[in-house]
Amino acid sequence: MLKSKIDKATGFEKRFENINTVVFENSGEASKAVAQEIAALIQSKQKENKPCILGLATGSSPKGLYAELVRLHKEEGLSFKNVISFNLDEYYPMEPNSINSYVRFMKELLFDHVDILPENAHVPNGLLTKEQIADYCTDYEAKIEALGGIDLQVLGIGGNGHIGFNESGSLQNSKTRLVALDHITRVAASKDFFGLSNTPRTAITLGVKKIMEAKRVILLAWGEGKANVVKRSVEDEVTNRVPASFLQEHNNAVFVLDKEASSKLTRINKPWLVEKVIWTDKLTRKAVLGLALQLKKPILMLTDADYIEHGMSDLLADSGPAYDINIKIFNKLQNTITGWPGGKPNADDSNRPERAEPARKRVLIFSPHPDDDIISMGGTFMRLQEQGHDVHVAYQTSGNIAVADDEALRFARFVIDYNEKFGIKSPEADDIYKKAQTFLENKKNSEIDIPEVRYIKGLIRKGEARATSHFVGLTDDQIHFMELPFYETGTIEKKPIGKEDIQLTMDLIENIKPHQIYAAGDLADPHGTHKVCLDAIFEAVKALKPKSFMDDCWLWLYRGAWQEWGIDEVEMAVPMSPDQVLAKRHGIFKHQSQKDGVVFQGTDAREFWQRAEDRNAETAALYQELGLATYAAMEAFVRWHY
Ligand code: F6R
């Protein structure tokens, strides 16, 4: 299945690419195709009475693959009796039973559910003494060599291009060894370790050399977050700054991608440079805006020569001269700007993003975490309220894992002191406080909070969300706390979306019958909370579609704290004045538990209000660079047709 897809697409459209790449609609389909290839290999080795030597990876990328292999074992009888596996890496030091160990990961996701012999499943040992590591690594490689090398190596790719834990700077002939982890790798892992300070600094990894010697290498990459490093590895020069680029020199390697991870490849991002394209409105807009930004020219200043010199002469021949194309694209972009996100009453709406009627709309804003509404669309939220719409906000999850432990105790203590002062007797409150205190005082790294602590943490975030909504002007009956069950695991790892999540979402939509729904449109975040929250909404609107009120319901997507829509995608841009920017900042400040050293900082040292301001200012600056009006800030939206 993989092979036939590769063969189909090795033509000239791949001339920028130095590694085979196969793009699937989504990571689920891709994982199934990879599982098919692995199953076929295992079976062909079985026929020859030979072992099948697999190199395995951990991380989020291969999870779907392992689930499919387990299914093939359980439902289709695929046996792993002849499989001998070698995992790429393990943190060091690491207890095999710790929730973050790769031993545990592999057992929970694969080994415990198939018939692989335990002695055949190798994962580097995180319990060695430093002195033992060198010999251990030599032995790990010798075992692989004695078996004739790895038949098929599964890889993920780090944001910095690492494969295994071969970080930037690793040599192509590097051996299996103890390595120091890059800051960026540690930050990515820190969400599993509840903070950077608990995240290991070192790991044992298979060297690049053994990976390169594998007979077949399949690298999996999902989501927009990987798009840049995928392009870098596949199209740019081979360099040890990006170890995955070494695979350009492997004769049987393939990158298996979902649409989002492939989005920066030239054939996808700038297809007109690769082959003859049909210049749809969408593609024209993307190409023209890209050209203007690349040349640092306002749209209306682009010339025929600019088009010709940048591979767009056929567009010019079809729809030119440049001035005509420029005007068309300029007007399109101009029409995305509106100070009336709920539609402007009594105005011609033929070129506006939203309908004029009904003048007073019912609006439902879904916020995955308690602060996404204000961070991502606070200016629009305030405008909708000020312009007299009936605005409701629904907080989809409690966000209870992202509160610091001492904050939880501080708030719980407040209740105890308050009760004491006023002689209020509440054995339940005392009990929760005591349990939380004892637990938190003895809490070990990465330990999952007990329900009492989660309850307190959730309550803190609830109070902050309510404070923001009141600040915007909403009353309690317009604020909805959904506490979707998929989220309530107490860990970063969430349950998959379930019937109940969808039903709760449907019930709320049906109850409010909104004309507008706003949702966090983080489409490309394969395992994140935002994506699950969005899936619940997509499922709910699809199921409700036959109902007549849905004919009038438009779904607008905003982006979460981490990224913004591409300028060529934006369908509604809501400008903000300097005063509105300040008001939004104050709205974000209501989330005190998320200020000053939040639990999940990510790679970005800025606080959420700073990120939001920078991002909204950047969007406004892009409009200005393209030759449109100058605003202090802008929030961007894309309409989703369901
Ligand atoms: C895991 C490993 C790493 C990951 C990479 C991508 O065994 O060696 O190289 O493959 O960090 O991680 P995810 O898949 O979580 O994005």
UniProtKB/TrEMBL annotation:
PROSITE patterns: GLC_GALNAC_ISOMERASE
Class of this enzyme: hydrolase
InterPro entries from the UniProt entry: Glc/Gal-6P_isomerase, GlcN6P_deaminase-like, GlcNAc_PI_deacetylase-related, Glucosamine6P_isomerase, Glucosamine6P_isomerase_CS, LmbE-like_dom_sf, NagB/RpiA_transferase-like
Transmembrane regions: none
Superkingdom: Bacteria
E.C. designation(s): 3.5.99.6
A matching Pfam family: Glucosamine_iso
Keywords attached to this entry: Hydrolase
Stretches assigned to coiled coil: none
GO-annotated molecular function: glucosamine-6-phosphate deaminase activity
Glucosamine/galactosamine-6-phosphate isomerase domain ranges (all copies): 28-253
Database matches in NCBIfam families: nagB, PRK02122.1
Protein name: Glucosamine-6-phosphate deaminase
Encoding gene (name): nagB
